[in-house]
Amino acid sequence: QDASIGSDQTVNTYWQRIKEYFDERNTSGHFRSSDSLRQRWSTINAECQKWAGCLSNVARMNPSGC
Fold first, then answer.
1. Which residues are CB-neighbours of 33 under 8 A, at least 6 positions away?
2. Whole-number mean pLDDT of the chain?
3. Is residue 17 a part of any domain in this protein?
4. Fewest beta carbons less than 10 Å away: which of 4, 13, 53, 62?
C-alpha cells in the first residue's frame, strides 16, 4: 500500500511491515510472528489459487449463449 517503498525492500522487511500492521489492528490478543503470518498467508494463498482454478474451470464449461 506504500508506493514510496514498492519493490525496494527485502522480503524480511516486507513481512516485518505486515507484522507491524497486524499488531496495530490485532484485537484477538493472539501473538503472531512475521514468520507465522507468512506461513498463514501461504496456506490462505494456496487455497485461494485452488478456488480461482475451480472458478476458471466452471466458466469454461458454460459457453456464452447456452
1. 19
2. 88
3. yes
4. 4
Question: Does the residue 23 lie in any domain?
Answer: yes
The neighbour count for residue 41, using CB atoms within 10 Å, is 13
| Cell 503470518 found at | 37
* Residues 5-28 pLDDT 10s: 777 788 899 999 999 999 999 999
Q: Tell me, what amino acid is at 41?
A: W
Query: CA-CA distance, 50 to 9, in Å (whole number)?
Result: 29
Residue 25 forms part of a structural domain: yes
Domain that holds residue 32: 5-60
pLDDT score, position 46: 97
Distances (CA, A) of 19 to 1, 3, 46, 54, 57: 14, 18, 20, 31, 35
User: Domain count of the chain?
Assistant: 1
66 inside domain: no
